[in-house]
Amino acid sequence: MVSAIFIFLFAVGILFSIATGNTSNLTNAFMCGPKEAIIIFFNTSYTLIFWSGILQICVESGLLNILGGAFSYLLRPLFKGLDKNDIALKYISLNLVSNMLSVGSAATPFGLKAFKRLSELNNYDSKASKEMIMFLNLNSSCLCALPVSLISTRISYGGMNNSLVVILLIIIGSILMLFSITLNKVCAHFAWR
User: Fold this and answer.
1) Which residue, 40, 137, 145, 149, has most beta carbons within 10 Å?
2) Phi, psi at residue 51, to the nearest 5°?
């Protein structure tokens, strides 16, 4: 589906440039685009590699498990249908903590394991449970406390006030997460009556 959308946008862009007579801009984009992409890659890769290494140390040292265990206490009120010692709660916590630390590669397996366990608890029903919906909402609106790729991209383009951007992202992410939780609770209240 995504590839079809990409092909559609690509075709529309070419047709629009031909229709408006801007084929020189199209040619420049074709010729300069790959070079600019490689420059951006090299300007941001060293930061991403460094932080990925630091975060991998957190995963292998067990720090991520410690943070996930502590975070599961905060999540218990949101997942009242789960037993406090259920492994799903630990996987959910680890997924959210990994996403908050921008460790996407470590977050995915935890998210898949959490959803598999939630499916088991839901008897593989085609209708999603409250816990499944809450987990998806939290995962999609997860607060990013360490936006490494954004900061490195801003630095490579000469962005100013990067610390201010991080603070604003944390504030906006917190508001979004609280809004998502509130909306989920309100919808669940009316849908499960």
Assistant:
1) 137
2) -70, -30
Residue 119 CA to residue 111 CA, distance in Å, equals 12
CA 17/CA 19 separation, integer angstroms = 6
Give the separation between CA 102 and CA 114, rounded to whole angstroms.
18
Task: Compute the C-alpha angle 76/82/83, nearest 5°.
Answer: 90
> Could you tell me if 132 and 81 are in contact, meaning their C-beta atoms sit under 8 angstroms apart?
no
User: Helix or strand or coil: residue 40?
Assistant: helix
Q: What is the pLDDT along the chain (193 residues), one digit of tens a residue?
A: 778 888 898 888 888 888 888 878 778 877 887 888 787 777 767 766 776 677 678 778 888 778 777 888 888 888 888 887 888 888 888 888 878 877 666 677 888 888 899 999 888 888 888 888 888 888 888 777 777 777 777 777 777 777 788 888 888 888 988 998 898 888 877 775 5
Q: Is pTM beyond 0.90 here?
A: no
Match 């529309």 to its residue by tokens.
12
Residue in 63, 59, 1, 44 with CA at minimum distance from that of residue 153:
44
| Biggest alpha carbon–alpha carbon distance for the chain | 65
Residue 82 φ/ψ, nearest 5 degrees: -100, 145
